[in-house]
Amino acid sequence: MVYNYKCGCRGRGLCAKGSNTGHYGQLNTFNYLADIPDNQEVTDLVEVQFKNTRKGYFHNVNNLPLQNGDLVAVEATAGHDIGTVTLTGKLVALQIKKANLKSNEEIRRIYRVARPNDLERYEAAKAREQETMIKSRQIAKDLGLEMKIGDVEYQGDGNKAIFYYIADGRVDFRQLIKVLAEEFRVRIEMKQIGARQEAGRIGGFGPCGRELCCATWMRNFISVGTGSARFQYLSLNPQKLAGQCAKLKCCMNYEVDQYIEAGQKLPQRDAILVSEEGEHYLFKADVLSGMVTYSTDKRLAANLVTISAERAHEVLAMNKKGEKPVTLEEGGHKEIERPVDLATQDDLNRFDKKKKKKKKKKSPHRNNDGEDKTESPTSEKTPQNA
Predict the structure, then answer these.
(1) In what helix (H) or strand (E) does residue 82 lie, and over which residues does it extend?
(2) Mean pLDDT calculated for residue range 7-28
(3) How does DSSP assign 266-313, residue by residue?
(4) Is the pLDDT of residue 122 over 70?
(5) Which domains can be identified in the chain, with CATH numbers?
(6) How far apart are the first and last CA of the chain?
(7) Tens-place pLDDT, residues 49-92
(8) Which of 33, 53, 318 is CA-nearest to residue 200?
């Protein structure tokens, strides 16, 4: 066990200062250099996260002693914004390269650590976001605009609001901006996002039981095609392959390279195996285990035979020479033994306890004829000498 006297944390060699917890843990980077002396003095750049997935990078010109989780007031358009510090030190420069911020003019300043009055205005502005989003959706509908406003974010001082919207085509929202400015009395900024970015801002849980990748760590979205599903032999069912954004799941790209590499060892899909039993067509394949299943019918599952990829190549080589094996399984992979279903071995009545018939014990007071030998309590004893 290691005790870090600088930050006061206990752990197995990892400093708790480098981790982010709570709501602002989304898209966080573990700062493994946090407990290194003079790490923050290397650069004055600080990473600050705002609502959901929006992040920014700022100069700590006042040399404030900032740590992860501190609420700060930063420079913004026509006022200031409130955000949470998520990264300091050397790693911030690497994150800036990743965000493609080449000019220092794009990086603004940190004013101060948020004061109580700053936090009051911040909470009051955030409380208006839900109501503003509902009203703005109705206004866009009344104007006949083909767009969907997915989220609204107020600036920390409440002087500006960013409206995130989704649209299939180009939208002329000049009239919408005028109506929104008159309705809410703030500066309006419209920002178009995609369906994946909307899912990341809203958040949620996927079918795997974990938080959405777009809401936790993904910054760049790579296009996902149906080819990823075909390489993994997945059923092309849109309801199963689509995520909460109604697009193909991003996780389909995670293992596709391994499936492509393993799939090169399998025979081609249109390859036909011929044995003395007839022709066999590929029905399904388990890519990672290297097992393929063949059927004697092109469209139906008939007389299924599961063999290894090596056995399939061996049969193909025999067919090229004009030879036919007796069966596909000959010399092939031994079938995997499946667990036996105990319910099929016997009927379910075997669990019922059978009542045993009790045998009547023979009374010692009865003779062989079944007559009772015991004397009646009222009977009198006959004197021996009458």
Answers:
(1) strand 79-88
(2) 44
(3) SPPTT--EEETTEEEEEEEEETTTTEEEEESSSSS--S-EEEEHHHHH
(4) yes
(5) 2-114 (no CATH), 128-198 (3.30.300.20), 222-262 (no CATH), 265-335 (no CATH)
(6) 105
(7) 888 778 888 999 888 888 888 999 999 888 899 999 988 888 88
(8) 53
